[in-house]
Amino acid sequence: MKAKGDFAEWAKVHDFFYASPRRPLDQCVRDGQDILLDIDVQGARKIKRKYPRPSRSFSYRLHGGSCSEGWLPRGTDRKETIRRRLVNARGEIRKIIKYDYYVVNCEVKTSVELLKSIVEAERAKNFQSQAMAH
Fold this sequence. Notes:
The chain is mostly helical. Helix content is 46%, strand content 10%. The protein has a two-stranded antiparallel ribbon with strand order 1-2. The N and C termini lie far apart (40 Å).
């Protein structure tokens, strides 16, 4: 699928490959639907290049787990894996400035409400842009 260009973005992260299929994203953009992706900084950068209209795609980082447990190692992780994840996390944190939005998931309910607000703000921005264009 990678060779055929079926992915909107793909990356190798922590020795695993991750990807977002292109066809459903293209369809959502054509239909004017909101898109929410769980991707890392590499993926977000690639998505913003392919789908540049800010009213259609926006970048944020949702950290999995609660604040207190999110950075703790999994019981199955080796020391090298933990070290690599921490190094990568430091690099990602330095890139916050490049994101339109940054959400830290300390409490799921609060994070969901914040994401709803972001979507509503982006919809309003898009509505304003379309109204001014006509």
